Structures are given as structure tokens and as C-alpha cells.
Amino acid sequence: MLSAPIPMHIPDGFLSTPVSVVLWIISIAAIAYALRRVGNELGERQVPFMGVLSAAIFAGQMLNFTVVGGTSGHLLGSALATILLGPWAAIIVMTSVVAIQALIFQDGGLVVLGANLFNMAIVGVAVAYTVYRAIHRLSGGRQWGIFVGGFLAAWSSIEFAALACALQLAASGTSPANVAVPAMGGIHALIGVGEGLITVGALAFLYATRRDLLIAGEGSTPQGKLVWGVGLAIALLLAVLSPLASAYPDGLEWVAEEHGFIEAARAPLYEVIPDYLFPGVSNEALATILAGVLGTLIVFGVVFAIGYARRKRSAT
Amino acid sequence: MHHSIEIRNLSFQYPDGHLALSQVDLTISPGEKAALVGPNGAGKSTLLLHLNGILQGQGEVRVCGLDLRDKKNLPKVRGMVGLVFQNPDDQLFSPTVYDDVAFGPLYQGLPLEEVERRVQAALAAVHMEAYAQRVSHHLSVGEKKRISIATVLSMQPEVLVLDEPTAGLDPRARRNLIHLLAELDMTMLVSTHDMHLVRELFPRMIIMDQGRIIADGKTEELLKDTVLLETHGLEAP
Amino acid sequence: MHVHYLDPYQPRHSPIHNLDSRVKLALALAYLLSTSLTPAGAWASYILLAAILLSAERLSDLPFSYFLRRAILALPFIFAALPLPLTTPGHIVAEFSLGGLSLRVSAEGLIRSASIALKFWLSIQMAVLLTVSTPFPELLQALRALRVPRLLVAIFGLTWRYLFVFADEALRLMRARSARSGQHPQGGYRSGRTLAWRAQVTGSMAGSLFLRALERSERIYMAMLARGYDGEVRMKPLPPLPIAQSIFLWIGIGILTLIAALGHFLTRLG
Q1: Do B180 and B193 form a contact (C-beta atoms < 8 A)?
Q2: Which pTM was predicted?
Q3: For residue B136, which residues of chain C lie inside 8 Å, CB to CB?
Q4: What is the pLDDT of residue A1?
Q5: Which CATH number, 3.30.1330.10, 3.40.50.410, 3.30.390.30, 1.10.1760.20, labels domain A17-262+275-315?
Q6: Chain C residues within 8 A of B115 when measuring between CB atoms
Q7: In angstroms, how far is the first alpha carbon of chain B from the final one?
């Protein structure tokens, strides 16, 4: 079975309906715009080009390498697609990949598909683009810009998509922000390294065989500015929101409630009690850190357990 | 009366500078069955891609009298020349066999009943009637080749153009395909490395090498000229 | 070497399989939405939803265990909801200490995490039921009926078609790597070199997959042009929905709406 290699596909049930709906609306708008941009650029080539490359990214996610014990590194591909195809085409490619994963492999739910598209096809692509362009400009077009930029773009695409995912879980009241943010952020900081290394490997291969493809990606047109700005805004917003939400775990839900996101019926349950971070631990900062460590340990434990079980199964 | 295919002084250069076709002249008459042979890189596939205007080089290409330099003729010509690509995984791009065979007629804007009729007839012609709802990926290479041919038969072309139809087939699938090609009573231009196939089915043989037509004549006679064949990387069957 | 097992569709002749794919997709989405909207702790609604799910699974001619096995794949995510009983304020039902840390479990927290687990469990099985009983080409038609842009539907169709082709290639690449990844017969060398090197090898494989896709997309584009493709996506119009099927669809949507409404009514009472 082909299951999502990177634990970032939110299943149904984990996000509240209002959060899901809001993210659907944002994603649909972004995808519709990207479809138009790519259509203008590629014309009649759009359908075969986007369809076939989506399939390649999809299959590329099957590739893996051994990290340690039974765990392995995988590719998600948002950054690689962005660097090679440009941001608009990458949005379409990742949309196709994530949508089909949800539709036929149940990697990620359908009501929450809007959120998964937002995280992987939009945040992942926009942040990767911003980082790659910034490093590329910094390097003045030299070779190291491609590889350092590629690594950091890939790492950031994973990390920021994970933070967005954690904040959505927190805003839905599924997972307290002071657990979700450090847990998702922590584990994906590691997963992001794998993503970065594979992406650099792919870029090195293409640099050696088809340098023209990497050069073609550089000549970004005015359209790039918009994505660059959006990517930067998303990255900054997530970078500010994540620690803030961790420090004030009720904050996100409070905002959601203020805007009527969460059903009024549930409101009485959420009477804000300041010390419920980790009951019994009075120091807020200490509690946040503890929760983060515990969360990360839990996720690590799960990942290791799964890896161990898989290895055992394949050994027999 | 005009010929099915008329090519005058056709040259084509790829963007990287490689000269793939050089001053090619070729005429195929209605009902004729001709084989195009030559080593890899001779320009066979490039020539075939010119026959319905996917590539456009210097020179004149006419299909059933229509000049391909006139862009308005392209849609018509694409209906007249049924071009089957070498790799069936490139030719069959739709989710199901039915969708693939219906693709050409749908783009010709035919009414739905006619599309339906064409699909049934094309699948019957390649003896694959039962496969309409099948998924292409699950077919064998031989089955994929037959469906590939059906995808252009459904457009009822004047000329059938095949790029290496027997490549990669096991002996039985190859034999079945040869029977099928023998059954199809239409003008045919087929590029191939399969010299047995050439001898069996094609009275006329055209040898290409390095973008040029080296020889063009009766298969029987050309196959006797072992020196000519060897010079151009071919073997007599 | 073909990765047939990638395709989750299980051909059967069940009432569920025979349902029009448009009705199936619409009802599955309505079910998921109704489950999503049902508030935490509305057990009556969850029981009704579970009853619908189990009867549909029973009707599908596939064993329950099949759905459970597929549902387990997404299980790790359940850990996201685990800390809830400890962090949600409310009636404390249990209290224990863990190395100086006193943990208090609240009833509200328990209800919320149990509800999330239930929602997840019901939703994923419904999604599994949809895909095992509907061939993907039919699912694409259903997407068209739900007004997903044709352009996107065409891209999804090609992605699905070539997913299998590239999955085969990825598998071949990995087999070729395994075949050459060994240890020195005398031992004494550490096999596999470094992590970064292994990642880079995998990256090269991804790069070559990308390159092959690029070349293939060009050939497919030509094959499409050769059959008259002009950039506009043309598809056969969908046949009209039989009356009986559309009545079934609306009754189903009505019931699912009522179940979610019942949930809200009950929790408001409580």
C-alpha cells in the first residue's frame, strides 16, 4: 500500500468544520488562480505536462532511504516541484498529488482536504519559493545558491507546512497549541532534513544532466514577486503565531470563538482557566517546554514503533 | 487524383542543431503499404511526426492534397493520418480504454451516437471488443499495442502510420499483430527494425540513414542487396 | 513488474458497487460533513452514523476486517488528540501523579478526545468504502458532476494513469539500488556510507524520475495533438441520473442532515 510517507496529511475528524471551510475557501481561490496562470504560460501543454509531472512527484514519494533503525527518509516534493516548475505549476502539481492521495489512498481526509491542500500545495510551495529565491539572489546566481537554497527551501516547506498543520489542530480544539506546535514542529524539523537532502540530491542530478532546467527556473517573471511576498507573509505569520500560540494555548481557540467559528453550544466548556497548560506545573514557560518535550517524545515513540514493526514484518 | 502522402525536399533541424532530415522526397499512393527502415537515429520517427504537422520543417508536405504549411489544414490532416506512437504508454493517456478510443472522435466533434459507433467498430477491428471499460495500465504490451491502433482507427484515417509496431512484443503477440496489420485494408507507412515483418507485409521498402532516403523500391529486390543493407546497419531476414 | 496493488478498487457486484458514482460521492461527502458537524458527546448521532456505515459496509460484499485494516493506516494521527483529557478544563474524574507531575483527567477532555477518535474512525471507513466500490475513472466523472473544473479533472485523470507507470519505474530504481547495495564479503567495512550520501542517491533517483516524466509528457503531448487535441478539454457529457437514484440521494442527504441536527439538539439540552 502506498501510504503518505510524511505525517502531515490530516485525517477527517481532526479539524472543526469552520476551520475546514475557511481553508477550503482559501485553497480553492489560490488553486483557481494558479490554474489560470499556468494555463496562460503553458497553453495546450498544460494538461499533459501537469498531469504527468504530478504522477512523477507522487511516485517520487515512494522513494526512500534508510535513516536509522527501521525509520526511513522520504520526499514530499513541494520544494522540488517549486524549484523546477515555478510556483504556479507547483501548486497545481501538489494539488493533484494531495487530492488523489485523499481520494484513493485515504492519506488525509476529504472534509479537511482544503486544509491539507493549504499546507502542502500552498504554504509548502510559497515558502519554498520565497526561501529559494532569497538564497539564490544572495548567492548572485552561483552554484552554491542552488544547493543551499534547495536544501533550505525544502526544509522550510516541510517545517512551515507542519506549523500550519499544528495551528489548525489547535484552532480546532483538537490538540493544545503548546503540545501540537512543538511536537509537529520538532519532528518535522528532522523530517525536513531528509527532505532537504533528497531535494539537493535531485538538484545535483539535474545540475549534472540537464542544467538548462535549473537555469530556466531562474528567469522568473513579474509573477514571482506576488508569490515571494505571499510566501514571506505566510512564513512570518507562522513564525510569530506558533510560539505565541504555544505560550497562550487558549489564544487560538479564543480567536476562533470570537469570530463565531466554534459552535456556541461548546462555548461553556471553554471557560478560560489560565493554569490548565499542564495542571500542577505553575511556571508557564516550564510547562510549555515540558509539553513540547513530551509531545515530541510521543511522536518519536510512535514513529520508531511503526518503523520497528515494519522492519520486523519485512524481515519475516 | 492526388497521392496520399507527398513530401518534397523536406529538411528538419532540431533546436540543438542536429539535422534530423535532409532533403527528403517521398510519395505514397493510396492503398500502398510501405516500410520505413534504417538504424536508430536515421530520422524515421522525425519523418513520421511531420506527417500530421506535429513537427514542421523546411519543405513541402501534402496529405491527400492538403498542404501542411497552411495551419488551417492541420485539424483535417490529423483526422486523415492515424499516427501510432512507438510506446503505447505514451499513446494511451486516458483512464480507460474506452476514453482513449473515443478521444479522437470526440475532438472531431462527432455526435455521441457516432462516437459510440466508431469506438465499437475500432475495438472490433483490433479484436478487443470486451476491453472497453478496462484500465490501460492493467493490459499486456500486446494488448496495449492493439488498443493504440484502435485509438486512431476510430478516427477513420486515410493513412495509417505506425512507429515500430512490433518492438518489445513476445513472439505470439508479434504474430497476432502481424495478422492484424494484414487484415487492415488501408494505406500504411510503418517504420520498423523487424525485417521479417517487412518481407511478409510490405511490398515497398524505404531505407533511411542520417536523415536521408538512401533507397526506395521493391522490398524483394532491396533485400537481395546485402551490401546496401549492411552499410546501413540492417540485416536481411 | 506492475504495482497493481496500488489501485484500491475491489470489483464486486454489490448494491453499493452498482450505485451511480455521482450518488456515491455526494452521499459519502454528505456523510463526512455530517460527521464533522456532529458536536462532541452527541452519542446518539454517532450511533446512527455508525449504523449507516456498518450497513453500507455489510452491503458492499467486503469483510469488515478489510475496512479496519485500511483505516489503521492513518492511526498515528490519533496521538494529536491524546493530550486533550489532560489539558481540557472541567470535572476531574481521575488524578494521578507521574514523577512529581500531577495529571488531572477531565470528563470534558475525555468526551472531546473520544468524539474526535470516533469521527476519525467513521470518516476514514466511509472514505475507504467509497474508493473500494468505485473505479477511479467513475470517480472522475462524479467530480465533474460536482462542478470540479474539467481542466483539473483531466489533470487528475492523467496523474492517476501515469502514477502506475512511474510507480513501476520508482520500484525498478529501488530494486536496482538494492541489487547493488551489499556488504563487502570479507566484512570489516561499514556498508551504506553516510546518511547524506544515501539521501543523495535517493535524490538522484527522484531527479531521474522527474527527467523521465518531462520527456514522457512531451511525447504524450504529441500523441494528444496527433489525435486532434487543441488545448480545450472535451469529455463525453454525463448521462442523466435515473430518478430512483436521485430520490435515494436526496433522502440520504436529508437523513444525514437530520443526524447532525439531532446531535446539536441533544448537546444543547445536556
Answers
A1: no
A2: 0.85
A3: 161
A4: 33
A5: 1.10.1760.20
A6: 236
A7: 36
CA distance A144 to chain C (A): 16
Give bridge partners of residue A65 from the DSSP assignment: A73
- Using H for helix, E for strand and C for coil, what is the string for chain B? CCCCEEEEEEEEECCCCCEEEEEEEEEECCCCEEEEECCCCCCHHHHHHHCCCCCCCEEEEEECCEECCCHHHHHHHHHHEEEECCCHHHHCCCCEHHHHHHHHHHHCCCCHHHHHHHHHHHHHHCCCHHHCCCEHHHCCHHHHHHHHHHHHHCCCCCEEEEECCCCCCCHHHHHHHHHHHHHCCCEEEEECCCHHHHHHHCCEEEEEECCEEEEEEEHHHHHHCHHHHHHCCCCCC
Residue A217's CB is within 10 A of a number of other CB atoms, namely 17
| Interface confidence (ipTM) of the complex | 0.92
DSSP character at residue C114: H
CA atoms within 13 A of residue A310's CA, in its CB half-sphere? 14
C156:A56 CB<8 A: no
Q: Where are the domains of chain A?
A: 17-262+275-315
| 3-state SS class at C41 | coil
Cα separation, C15 vs C13, in Å, equals 7
In angstroms, the CA B235 to CA B223 distance is 9
Cα distance between the two ends of chain C: 58
User: What does the pLDDT average to over C237-244?
Assistant: 91
Q: Determine contact, residues A47/C197, Cβ cutoff 8 Å.
A: no
pLDDT tens digits along A40-58: 888 888 999 999 999 999 9
Choose the mutation target among A75, A84, A205 for the interface with C, i.e. most C CBs under 10 Å: A205
What single-letter amino acid sits at B68?
Answer: L
Q: Which residues contact C57 (CB under 8 A, 6 or more apart)?
A: C64, C67, C125, C129
Question: What is the C-alpha separation between A167 and C83, in angstroms, rounded?
Answer: 15
Contact B106 C234 (CB under 8 A): yes
Which residues make Cβ contacts (< 8 Å) with residue A251, sequence separation at least 6? A177, A244, A245
Q: Residue A249: what pLDDT?
A: 65
Contact B19, B44 (CB under 8 A): no
The pLDDT tens digits for C34-51 are 999 999 989 999 999 999
* Res A129 pLDDT > 60: yes
Task: Check CB contact under 8 Å for C224 and B93.
Answer: yes
Judged by CB atoms closer than 8 Å, whether chains meet at A13 and C90 is answered as no
Which residues of chain C make contact with B81, given a CB cutoff of 8 A?
Answer: 226
Average pLDDT, integer, range A98-124: 94
Contact between B198 and B189 under an 8 Å Cβ cutoff? The reply is no
Cell of C238: 454525463
Secondary structure of residue A85 in the 3-state scheme:
helix
All partners of chain C with 3 or more CB pairs under 8 angstroms: A, B
Q: How many CB pairs under 8 A join A and C?
A: 320
Strands B5-13 and B19-28: antiparallel
Whether the predicted pLDDT of A16 surpasses 70 = yes
Contact predicate B232/B214, CB 8 Å:
yes
Arithmetic mean of pLDDT, B215-232: 93
In chain B, what are the domain boundaries?
5-231
- Residue C270, helix vs strand vs coil: coil
Q: How many CA atoms lie within 13 A of B220 on its CB side?
A: 1
- Categorize the per-residue pLDDT at B1 as very low, low, confident or very high, splitting at 50, 70 and 90: low
Residue C88's region, left for phi above 0, alpha for psi from -120 to 50, else beta, is beta
Out of C39, C149, C211, the one facing A265 most closely (by C-beta) is C39
> Does B138 or C138 have the greater pLDDT score?
C138
Domain B5-231: which CATH number of 3.30.70.20, 3.30.230.10, 3.30.565.10, 3.40.50.300? 3.40.50.300
